Amino acid sequence: MIELGSKVKCKYTGVIGVAVVRAEFINGCVQYGVAQPVKKDGTLPEETAIDEKSLVVLAKPPKEKAKKERDGGPNTRGLCMRGY
To answer: What angle do CA 62, 67, 71 make, to 5 degrees?
Structure first.
């Protein structure tokens, strides 16, 4: 299974792009929608549907860092603002 957001290349056609959609059909066929980069004239090429077995993963999608949430500890800033 290819992770969505991965940069992929088709072995047969040479199409390079990002896997954005995964479609699994009732007969067991699995295809991925591959979005290609923007052309030089600024137009977007259409998404291409390619069989899973024809794709090679070039790069995994970047992982997002988890944001540190507040732990709910005491608020020390409020004490000095009240004049204590």
So the answer is: 155
